[in-house]
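Fill in residues.
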């Protein structure tokens, strides 16, 4: 066994530098000065007897070994965090810090309705929220930057566990002037692919909408212009096309002050599944189960589950 081992602080500096690609920014994320971070990394290199980072005036470049060690260091830091999580979970559940990711097509519609209940049920919980697209949230989860994520499934998020909260039905939204007497439901075949507006790439709702319609040609024909659901609603309200909206957004009032009409999509799988997701094997799994139960209760009370 080696007489001297790297410290967690040194590994934290290494991982921060790899993620930021800049000594100054890495130092800021670690809340130390740039000279302190640089000295810590030199001590790590001296301890390991090898160069990990090539330093120039403009570029920070990791050696091949440095990149491999940074990857291992990230896992070590995550395991160290889970040691503390394990002790906390064995004591008082859902107390202390918890970092939750939420995707943009859920955050503004669901959080205002569930956060009051979470605060009331778990007053010692310090919840830190981070809004990210689905792919970025899953990456942050596996890097250890997040403890859990509120996602819409199906989505390939890696080696995770999930708890279904509720189904979120999809609706077809179109300008109010297009139909005096709108039908009770709209089949995917009735959607004009040249008029369909969807979110840009990176938002899983686009894939859920296309999968629900089960029309492969929509992927190439649809005008994927929207950066948010609010933008899509305004585009529809101005007669630029039709779109697909989740029920939770409609219940939250996204169509307020517009003439847009929303009708349920009549398909075999017309809903996305809202779920709480965490890393498989996390020592806080029981806490996530408790949080999920609270979220299910809040959704039921608020009538969010279809």
């Amino acid at each position: 066994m080696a007489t001297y081992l790297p410290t967690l602080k040194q590994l934290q500096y290494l991982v921060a530098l790899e993620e930021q690609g800049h000594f100054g920014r890495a130092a800021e994320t670690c809340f130390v000065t740039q000279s302190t971070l640089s000295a810590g990394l030199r001590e790590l290199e001296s301890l390991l007897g090898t160069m990990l980072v090539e330093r120039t005036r403009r570029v920070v470049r990791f050696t091949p070994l440095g990149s491999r060690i940074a990857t291992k260091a990230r896992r070590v830091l995550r395991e160290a965090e889970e040691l503390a999580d394990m002790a906390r979970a064995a004591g008082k559940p859902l107390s202390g810090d918890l970092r939750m990711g939420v995707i943009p097509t859920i955050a503004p519609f669901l959080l205002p309705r569930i956060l009051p209940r979470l605060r009331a049920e778990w007053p010692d919980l310090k919840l830190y929220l981070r809004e990210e697209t689905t792919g970025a949230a899953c990456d942050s989860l596996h890097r250890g930057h997040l403890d859990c994520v509120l996602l819409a499934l199906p989505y390939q998020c890696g080696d995770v566990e999930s708890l279904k909260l509720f189904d979120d039905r999809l609706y077809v939204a179109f300008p109010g002037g297009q139909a005096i007497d709108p039908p009770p439901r709209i089949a995917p075949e009735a959607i004009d692919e040249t008029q369909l507006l969807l979110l840009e790439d990176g938002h899983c709702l686009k894939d859920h909408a296309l999968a629900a319609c089960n029309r492969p040609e929509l992927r190439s024909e649809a005008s994927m212009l929207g950066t948010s659901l609010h933008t899509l609603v305004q585009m529809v309200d101005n007669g630029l096309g039709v779109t697909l909206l989740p029920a939770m957004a409609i219940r939250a009032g996204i169509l307020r002050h517009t003439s847009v009409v929303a009708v349920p999509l009549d398909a075999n799988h017309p809903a996305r599944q809202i779920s709480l997701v965490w890393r498989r094997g996390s020592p806080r799994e029981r806490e996530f189960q408790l949080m999920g139960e609270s979220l299910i209760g809040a959704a039921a009370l608020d009538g969010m589950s279809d």
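The two ends are 58 Å apart (CA to CA).
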